[in-house]
């Protein structure tokens, strides 16, 4: 892992980390919420690329403003994130790049696919959140996400408290991540995997700004004309996802040209990305 920062035109600092193969397909990873420059899934991708069990990708994990090393950006919108990604690509001389997004990273990846069609080659989305400003997609969202979405505009102190609690007691946050699993599956989660999540959670919630801005972005119109997206988009989603229903991916596939969906069975929200990795990397590199 190579950690670094760039300075954006307005003076803000943007944090990121680089993984994978230096000559691989340039790919920008858009994390879920909260999401930072490192984590167990990212380490696994890095290891598999270097071992040759995944196609060669040069992976850049960006931290949206308010997370990790990145300065906050009061009033951040999806448009601002797209601008930051374009500036990042310019700084690293990436003329073209692929996108890989998980969960809450999906809105930002789709916005980039729409607004940067000459730069984005392909977009892969795993267990991605759909446009929840539409009532039909808001229905079925898990209670925790629904509460945070509603709080983002009307009661930001709820998200601030949530982030502070997660930072002070990351194990309780991790327990919520696995709450949808049957008891026997929860008990099968290795202790080492839980330990690996703790520093990621603490880094992602040391400030509430990242989560607060993400949820504000999710609940407002994204200003994305999905019908105009020409970048090939591939969704990976499980029928059993109880955090973000597969109906989100189904809706987006129905209106995005050249979009497709790989369905998984019996996988929870967090397990989908791991299961999808070989197909995601094949899609992005071919």
Q: Would you write up a description of this structure?
A:
By secondary structure, the chain is of the alpha/beta class. The chain has twelve helices and eight strands. A hairpin with a 5-residue loop joins strand 1 and strand 2 (13-20).
Largest beta-sheet characterization:
8 strands, mixed
Unreliable stretches = none
Using only C-alpha atoms, the radius of gyration works out to: 17 Å
Order of helices and strands: EEEHEHEHEHHHHHHHEHEH
- How far apart the termini lie comes to 25 Å
In short:
With 286 residues, the protein is of the alpha/beta class. Helix content is 44%, strand content 18%.
Entry keywords:
about 290 residues; alpha/beta; eight-stranded mixed sheet; 12 helices; about 45% helix; globular
Topology record:
Blueprint (H helix, E strand, L loop, with lengths): L1 E6 L5 E8 L4 E6 L9 H12 L5 E6 L15 H14 L5 E6 L3 H10 L4 E7 L8 H4 L4 H12 L1 H13 L1 H8 L5 H4 L4 H15 L3 H11 L13 E6 L8 H9 L3 E6 L6 H15 L1
Parallel strand pairs: 3-4, 3-5, 5-6, 6-7, 7-8
Antiparallel strand pairs: 1-2, 2-4
Helix pairs in contact: 2-3, 5-6, 5-10, 6-7, 6-9, 7-9
